[in-house]
Specification:
The protein has a domain at 30-53 and 384-650: Rossmann fold. Helix 1 (47-57) packs across helix 10, helix 4 (480-495) packs across helix 5 and helix 6 (540-546) packs antiparallel against helix 7. The strands form 8 sheets. Strands 2-3-39-38-37-36-34-35-33-32 form a 10-stranded mixed β-sheet, sandwiched between helices. Strands 1-8-9-10-11 form a 5-stranded antiparallel β-sheet, with no helix packed on it. The chain has a 4-stranded antiparallel β-sheet with strand order 4-5-6-7, with no helix packed on it. It is built from 10 helices and 39 strands. By secondary structure, it is an alpha+beta fold. The model is unreliable at 1-34 (pLDDT under 50).
């Protein structure tokens, strides 16, 4: 059987799929509903609002999770309150659900041959202490392989299907080591050097493992590890500070392909000859990030995904003659590769377009066309979908050429003519900060823009990915508030747009975006109607002191080391909690009780501080969630509350 490349470590993204309704019961100022949501200073949503939220999130979305040996596929789709794994036999076939867990499946790893099953990862209630499970397709049941306590992730099967490499913290709960585990569950250490390590790929003869050492989110190194004795050798330019992504062996084992920004402002695809050590950049003419790639098992085809200003573009290259193969256009959006099937005739990918729910597709190499495996295309005659416009605006400083720095953004404009005062606006800020606001199906945005008539703008402030490593570093350390000033510059841009109402602007953000939203309320409160922070940071010092130990050093490289007195004083000065006396606008705070990244105390402190100003603050606590809300019931509650909040403060529509 040909070796499949690039499809054996398919992460399952959290997305809005099939939804269910949660019924609430209020008992005074602080209440708990049947889904264990705590309402503090806010009324539980009405049954009608919950039903409307459930209807908006009820979709047939699915993502690709892996190829099976017979050409069928595994997909991840929401069933009830959680994401489950399903089997689908072909385009348009009815998916058959395999797993039935109370928590969502986080990742799936399918062996290339030799094993009639697959691995999946799952945590409990958002803790991110993922455990590895093996699902036996013949017996239709799963069993846990990991210890039930440590964090385990990044499993990569050997070619013969008898064992897999994975990352685990079982040694001391802190360092992320690489172990080798048999399909029966026997685990042996391979790399125990401290810090963070991730398995990438096995050599074709299963005698060596390609691994990535992670120093920070923008600095990593590749190593080749001999399985027999653990001997290690660096791969590529080991002196460069590089952001390395996927790395794979060539099917013949003579070379390694990997993505890196070591030789460019953007992440390129490189090939290293293992005999000579010679490196060659394969995508020098592309001036955007190569975000993913896959190799066919026969070594004849290379698939690439380019991130062009947030939009994905699929490329296919013939390796024998280094010829680019012309492909038909796919719908605009973001694309995640799933890899070539066992026959090397079909390439799977997941496509998230703005016009319809996320879906699984394949590219047929022989016919050079696309086939949709899941969901039905949206009928434009009966459904209005809002497509964003890519814009940019001038910020406060200048670039290296002396021009005002431009900040990219996506602008979702409501249909029809604007009202006399112009459309109200919601500014939505992404987390990370090493992340990017990108187009994709978002029921919340579709509801706000298409149904409520609220324009939504999602800026990629400095520090976002996708625009080069210089732009990525512009907010590091003592320059943190420069990103906040990018938000202020967006408010200036909004004020200059005749179709937008500068007197009705709200701001919301998730995680780091919550920090930005709270900071914007402190600095620009007179220009804002209201704000929301979801699993957001309120104080940078306490965040760094209390975030998961596994992440602390990585986050210090981004924000600065709070143990240094000068840095600590700066972080304290710019934190929203310190600036809380300035926040005088209505505020919505939502958080997960088990959040390991931004502890729930970050929410509780800002709620208390802003309430002391006499300001309306609604606080939603989801005790069985983590850094985000994965349960359908939780998402429905949050969406209902959020919609009501923005209707009240941007549209002046108050429920009776």
């Amino acid at each position: 059987m040909p070796v499949m490349r690039g499809c054996f470590q398919c992460l399952v993204h959290i997305f809005v799929l099939l939804a269910s309704t949660a019924v609430s019961a209020t008992t005074g100022d602080r209440s708990v509903d049947r889904s264990r949501v705590v309402y503090d200073g806010i009324e539980a949503p009405s049954p009608a609002d919950l039903q409307a939220a459930a209807a908006r999130s009820r979709t047939s979305g699915a993502v690709f999770a892996g190829w099976l040996a017979n050409g069928a596929a595994l997909i991840a789709a929401r069933h009830g309150d959680a994401i489950q794994i399903h089997r689908i036999d072909g385009p348009g076939a009815v998916p058959q659900r395999l797993t039935d867990s109370s928590d969502s499946i986080a990742a799936v790893t399918v062996p290339r041959r030799g094993s009639e099953g697959f691995l999946f990862g799952m945590d409990s209630n958002g803790t991110e202490d993922w455990q590895l499970y093996y699902y036996d397709l013949g017996a239709n049941r799963s069993r846990r392989l990991s210890d039930g306590q440590s964090r385990n992730q990044g499993a990569v099967w050997a070619h013969d299907g008898s064992r897999f490499a994975y990352t685990t913290t079982r040694r001391n709960g802190l360092d992320a080591d690489i172990h080798i585990m048999s399909a029966e569950g026997d685990s042996q250490p391979l790399v125990e050097r401290g810090g963070g390590w991730l398995a990438q790929d096995w050599s074709p003869n299963d005698q060596a493992l390609l691994v990535r050492q992670v120093h920070s989110l923008t600095h990593s190194r590749l190593w080749l590890v001999r399985i027999s004795d653990g001997a290690m050798a660096p791969i590529g330019n080991d002196r460069a500070v590089a952001n390395i992504g996927r790395a794979l062996f060539a099917p013949d084992g003579q070379a390694i392909y990997y993505t890196s920004d070591e030789a460019s402002e953007f992440r390129q695809l490189l090939r290293v000859d293992l005999r000579t050590g010679r490196r060659r950049i394969l995508t020098r003419s592309i001036r955007w990030d190569i975000e993913d790639f896959a190799l066919s098992g026969d070594g004849r085809h290379l698939a690439l995904v380019v991130n062009e200003n947030g939009y994905s573009r699929l490329l296919l290259r013939s390796l024998p003659d280094q010829r680019n193969i012309r492909l038909p256009a796919h719908p605009p959006g973001t694309l995640s590769l799933g890899g070539f099937d066992p026959s090397d005739r079909h390439l799977a990918f997941t496509l998230a377009s703005t016009g319809e729910p996320v879906a699984v597709w394949t590219l047929s190499l022989g016919r050079n066309d696309y086939q949709r495996w899941t969901g039905e295309p949206t009928d434009p005659a009966t459904s209005v979908r809002i497509e964003p416009e890519a814009i940019d605006y001038a910020s406060f400083d200048r670039d290296s050429e002396g021009w005002r720095r431009r900040i990219p953004a996506l602008y979702y404009r409501p249909p029809g003519s604007p009202p006399e005062r112009g459309f109200p606006v919601l500014v939505s800020l992404h987390g990370g900060p090493e992340a990017q606001a990108r187009p994709g199906f978002n029921p919340t945005i579709q509801h706000l823009v298409g149904e409520l008539g609220i324009a939504v703008i999602t800026p990629n402030v400095r520090g976002s990915t996708g625009y080069g490593k210089h732009f990525l570093a512009l907010d590091d350390g003592l320059r943190r508030e420069h990103a906040v000033r990018d938000v202020g510059a967006l408010l200036d841009w909004i004020a200059d747009q005749p179709e937008l109402d500068a007197d009705r602007i709200g701001v919301t953000g998730t995680s780091y975006g919550g920090y930005l939203a709270l900071s914007a309320l402190a600095h620009y409160g007179a220009r804002l109607r209201a704000g929301a922070s979801v699993v957001g940071i309120s104080h940078l010092v306490t965040f760094l002191e209390n975030t998961s130990e596994l992440r602390r050093d990585l986050r210090r490289l981004e924000y600065g080391d709070e143990r240094d007195p000068t840095t600590r004083a700066h972080l304290d000065r710019i934190s929203p909690l310190t600036l809380a006396p300035r926040i005088k606008r209505p505020l919505l705070i939502a958080h997960g009780g088990n959040d390991p990244r931004v502890p729930v105390a970050e929410a509780e402190r800002i709620v208390s501080a802003v309430r002391s100003n006499g300001v309306e603050v609604g606080y939603l606590l989801f005790p069985d969630e983590g850094h985000g809300f994965t349960r359908t019931s939780s998402r429905n509650v949050f969406e209902a509350i959020s919609s009501r909040f923005w209707r009240a403060h941007l549209l002046d529509q108050h429920d009776e």
